[in-house]
UniProtKB/TrEMBL annotation, chain A:
Protein name: PTS fructose transporter subunit IIA
Upper lineage: Bacteria, Bacillati, Actinomycetota, Actinomycetes, Kitasatosporales
This protein's GO CC annotations: membrane
Residue intervals of the PTS EIIA type-4 domain: 16-146
Alphabetical list of Pfam families matching this protein: EIIA-man
One record GO biological process: phosphoenolpyruvate-dependent sugar phosphotransferase system
PROSITE patterns, alphabetized: PTS_EIIA_TYPE_4
InterPro entries: DhaM, PTS_EIIA_man-typ, PTS_EIIA_man-typ_sf
Automatic annotation (TrEMBL), chain B:
Protein name: Dihydroxyacetone kinase subunit L
Entry annotated with the keyword Membrane: no
Pfam families: Dak2 (PF02734)
InterPro entries with a match to the protein in the record: DhaK_L_YcgS (IPR012737), DhaL_dom (IPR004007), DhaL_dom_sf (IPR036117), Dihydroxyacetone_Kinase (IPR050861)
Length: 146, 199
């Protein structure tokens, strides 16, 4: 186990942390992903996947879409999962509690959705590890606007 | 003793009562929620009965774990992970026993309710499903009928409460005077137990 962890840390220099954006709305998730990548400048190498709405295209949360998005951004350096509210938060927590539904080293990050997404993508683009990406996203709570 | 047939029956009769009461659940969810509780649970329990027919798990624990997994996958609202966690954790606590007694079910259900409280952060009195489930589990030691009555009473007792969790909590004092939809559907789930036991 500790060997695995050590090699994962070494690998984080080369492998980028993946980011999943979970919203009740497919458009919100996709737009925030686009915004965060654009604001990160040349950060397009960061794997970012939106998981918005239900599989039927309605407002809501889909465990399947979340699991598929997380698998698609997993490069072996961990996956940061950012959510809007309510069932998005609860569904990710329930999937993490299942154990095998999300890639190893997936983490629900406590952060504001838009600001956290920008901070996470910018930080991940530097090759930072999952701890640093999660810390940067959470820190977005402290940026006051007035 | 309660065997796999009992647990299958529990899920089937609950699916039927959710079907029957879907409009009422959604109506309760209109003034203090987003008016989708009935249709969400209907979709979830329809998937549960379909999966139970297809995969035919043969122990009480396996039946509840499969049912919970279906709810997490298909509901699309907060009730999915909450009810999914309730049934999965209860199922896991039952282990792989072929039969369990009512006291073992009460213990397992208590573990499930504890997991729901951890997941959602709700405590008794917050105007949530917990307000029906906790008194039901407490009464289950006595009988299935007592658990059903306790859950129904708990759901009604949410009317004067102010919501402290979920979407209804944004309404503050305006949530007072409405029966909580989640507590109401939890009472249906517990009534399903009593119906499956023919009490």
């Amino acid at each position: 186990m500790s060997d695995e962890k050590m090699s994962a840390e070494k690998m984080s220099d080369e492998k980028l942390v993946g980011i999943v954006l979970v919203s009740h709305s497919a458009q919100v998730a996709a737009s925030v992903a686009e915004l965060a990548k654009a604001l990160a400048g040349g950060a397009t190498a960061v794997p970012v996947a939106p998981a918005g709405g239900t599989e039927g295209g309605e407002l809501g949360t889909s465990a399947e879409l979340i699991a598929a998005a997380a698998a698609s951004v997993d490069r072996g350096a961990g996956v940061a999962v950012l959510t809007d509210l309510g069932s998005a938060v609860l569904t990710v927590k329930a999937l993490l509690a299942e154990g095998d539904e999300l890639p190893a080293q997936s983490r629900l990050v406590d952060c504001p959705f838009v600001e956290g997404a920008v901070a996470a993508v910018v930080t991940a683009a530097t090759g930072a590890d999952l701890d640093a990406v999660a810390a940067a996203a959470s820190e977005a709570y402290s940026y006051r606007k007035v | 003793m309660l065997d796999a047939d009992f647990f299958r029956r529990w899920m089937t009769v609950t699916a039927a009562s959710v079907d029957r009461e879907a409009e009422r659940l959604t109506a309760l969810d209109s003034p203090i929620g987003d008016a989708d509780h009935g249709s969400n649970l209907q979709r979830g329990f329809t998937a549960v009965t379909a999966a139970l027919e297809k995969e035919a798990p043969d122990t009480p624990g396996a039946i509840l774990i499969l049912a919970g997994r279906q709810l997490i996958s298909t509901v699309g609202g907060a009730s999915g992970p909450l009810y999914g966690t309730l049934l999965r954790r209860t199922g896991k606590a039952l282990g792989d026993a072929a039969e369990v007694d009512r006291a073992q079910l009460a213990d397992a259900l208590r573990a499930g309710v504890d997991a729901v409280m951890t997941l959602g952060g709700a405590a008794p009195g917050d105007k949530t499903m917990i307000d029906a489930l906790v008194p039901a589990v407490d009464a289950l030691g006595e009988s299935f009928g007592a658990a059903r009555n306790a859950a129904e009473h708990g759901a009604l007792a949410t009317i004067p409460l102010q919501a402290r969790k979920g979407r209804a909590s944004y309404l503050g004092e305006r949530s007072i005077g409405h029966q909580d939809p989640g507590a109401t559907s939890s009472a249906l789930l517990i009534a399903g137990l009593a119906e499956a036991a023919d009490e």
